Amino acid sequence: MPGRSTPARNLRLVIVLVGILVAWTGLGYRLVGVQALDAARWEASGSAQWVREEALPAVRGTIYDRDGIELAVTVDAVTVVADPSLVTRPRLTARLVAPVVGLKRAELVAKLAADSRFAYVARGISADTADHIERLIERHELTGLSFITEPVRTYPAGTLASQVVGFVMSDTEQGLEGLELVLDEHLTGTPGTQVIERDRFGVPIPQGMYTIEPAVQGADVVLTIDREIQYAAERYLTEALETTGAAAGTVVVQHVATGELLAVASAPGFDPNNRTEISPETVRNRAVADVYEPGSTLKVVTIAAALDEGLVTPSSRFDVPDELLIHDKVYTDTGRTGPEEMTLARIVARSSNIGTIAVQQLLGNRLHHQYLERFGLGESTTSGMPGEAPGQLQPVEQWCSTTCGPSTAIGYRVGVTPLQMAAVFATIANGGVWVQPHIVSEIIPSSGERIVTVPVQRSVISEDTARTMQLMLQGVVDSGTGTRAAVDGYTVGGKTGTTEKWMPEEVRYSATARIASFIGFAPVNDPQVVIAVVLDSPHGDVPGSSPNSLGEYPRFEFGGVSAAPVFASVAEATLHQLGVPPDGS
Amino acid sequence: MALAAPVAVLVVIGLGAVMSSSSVVAIRGGLDQYAIFERQLLFVAIGIAAMIVTTKIPYQAYARWAPLILMVAIGGLAATQLVGTVRGGSRSWIGIGAFTVQPSEFAKFAVVTYLAAVLARKEGYLGQFSHVALPAIGSLGVVSALVMLQPDLGTTILIVVAAFAVIVASEAPVRHVAALGLASLGGAVFLARAAPYRWQRLTAWFDSTPDILGADLQVHQAQVALGSGGLFGVGLGASRARWSYLPNAHTDFIFAIIGEETGLAGSLTVILFFVFFTVVGAVVAMRASDSFGRLLAIGLVTWLSFQAIVNIGGVVDALPITGVPLPFISVGGSAMIVNLAVVGVLLNIARSGVEPPARRS
What we know:
The structure holds 2 protein chains of 2 kinds.
Chain A: H1 6-37, H2 39-50, E1 51-56, E2 63-64, E3 70-82, H3 90-101, H4 105-112, E4 119-125, H5 127-140, E5 145-154, H6 162-165, H7 178-182, H8 184-188, E6 192-197, E7 210-213, E8 220-223, H9 227-244, E9 248-255, E10 261-267, H10 280-283, H11 286-289, H12 299-308, E11 317-320, E12 323-326, E13 329-332, E14 340-343, H13 344-350, H14 353-363, H15 365-374, H16 404-409, H17 418-429, E15 433-435, E16 440-444, E17 451-452, E18 457-459, H18 463-479, E19 493-503, E20 508-522, E21 529-536, H19 559-578
Parallel strand pairs in A: 2-8
Antiparallel strand pairs in A: 1-6, 2-3, 3-4, 3-5, 6-7, 8-16, 9-10, 9-21, 11-14, 12-13, 15-18, 16-17, 19-20, 20-21
Chain B: H1 4-28, H2 35-56, H3 60-83, E1 85-87, E2 90-96, E3 99-101, H4 103-121, H5 129-149, H6 153-169, H7 174-194, H8 196-206, H9 217-229, H10 254-286, H11 291-315, H12 333-351
């Protein structure tokens, strides 16, 4: 090494070394910045991506009938979802899958070709359908489709009590109609939260932190509905709509002593599992939402009040003309020719308007109104079902002194719901005590106290009056207007009703359409159930029938003709289901 | 043996980091969680064997065989273009049985050895530019061109910088060194512009508003990992970034996982051991018994140390990402074996070097 000393050569090495060490120092400086000075900011940014606060859905509570049979239940169902960014062949995929899930091909292509990372293909499909799609995915190597489970609300009983139970919004399981709506707060439960660390693909990091606040599951609800009785009520009601040509109808079955509603049926109905049939007409819970003028069935209030006030007895006699003019109004009795002397019992059995008006004249408006109120008219029964109408009962101060009392006595000028009328008859059947009709037996939270419905009760008429009424109403079925309501083996009491249908849009009564009803109870010797049947606009002659003594053919417009047979069928099924021993012939 | 100590520490730290960082990748790939770690353990064993072998080989032999070594390296690089497999966008690997080798790792050694041999042999003629420039430009040019064909800018830069260190350490006049330096810089800029993705990486690095979901994702996630580590780390095996947030967590970005799990304390420790290695390596060069040993040692030390700087510089967002592994630590067989073999060469140079004067007590 000529001319160079070791230190000089080493200087070159030192230069290289220093260069490298300067770079290392720079990195150390930079590290202090990232890991000490700015560490908090980077750590927050890290936590934000791997620590997730997630909602834990609460399972919606189940709605049961009185025997624990599921009417509405949330189950895990398979849902097919797509990640459109991973779907490589949207057209082929849509052609294969669309028919399986009941979608239009173009519709599915649009979903699969969307510029997004998530799309529903089919929600809540059956296991068979899921298998089918899985096979398609395998055979054709389809990409971007996957299966998840989602809670889905199903109604195992289908159309049964659908207007009572209601339904939920399919996406959110939020109650939309019926008890699903009013009990939503109980059924929903409280979602929990979990804090969990997840990897970039959403898989939990094993050693990550985990805290959980568990969801509180929704409360279960037990209804007073008896599935068998409800089924019978719906079946005979639907048959009646066919045979009588009625546009709609409702049947209420109420347990006399407890006020429990064993059946609340409305027709036409819908299947909550298949929303295509849903319309305001089919969703309507007519037992509480429809307000109608009750007609003759309301006469029981007039008669019971007069009896209870000691103004009359069943054998009190009245001279009953065949026509009565009050102020500007002519009252008549159907099928009458000439004046007649009638007992009170006969007035009831014959459903005489003029006779009942005579009783009302003895009673007076004030007392009459008082009894109407005590029987629960003009205010909601608060049965627990949504959309319950209070009906209409004018304050007595506003009643005119002429026709108001008489018209009210025979069931006009008062708006009622079928359920209110059932409760009126239940009061008579229950020895004079009005019991709040109710649909919810108990609410069972996932933890904590059960909420058991305790119905409101109040005495309306004396037990003697009630018993007298029961016997007079038995006469209606035995030999009056309600003979078609008779049930083999049981004594039955009840009252027919036929009113002109009020047309609110036209502000007049319909010339042809009638509201036909029959409300009764059985057995008379120990009343167990009250059944109210109300049909909207039944019409036509009864096929194969013979005319009465006046040459009149029975027509479905009359409650005794169209509604009474429905009562008989439902009553028979109900008494058998309840195991009530026969008491008659 | 002072050189072996920092290397041993770095290899051990590396194995720990690999065990943690590779487990998620292994599981995602359908393997046992320790599959990649066990493979790396095998590579370390092979590397130690190679190191023991190279420790025994008198380093002067490389001077004699330098042209052949360079030819083999060039042949290997050429072969990657013909039969190589592509990984991460670079055609850098050749499959041999169950393993793949990376000829560019060997090429670094070849270029440094060749230049050290030529410059040591021509010590008397270094005043003439052609004696420096021809071998430098010739060997560097061919090797760089082949590595750039893969393409692998990071490795090219490492080769150029290591070669440059050899030239600086030689007796070549300062003006010649400066001229070569400027030429290399010009070449690097040209190459960076030549490929759009490289330019994008560079501009992404200079861009003040990071695109954390696109070009800057890796760097952003690396900072998140390092920052999450704080001063003392989240604990061994407790990295979150390795759960698919930080791509290449077990290879090019393994330093971020070390920083996350052991904090600033751990990451600075790694840096200190690299510095330790560098200083000891430079001392080995100073005490080398001849010019070839001196140039070879400084070239090899510069290569390994600078590779670590480029890697960590990318991870801490101080330098652009170039895709070079962290020596002694990142997962990778070829690199580990070659790096440890190189340590063996350095140990051999140290063994035959001038002993420091014994201190009198």
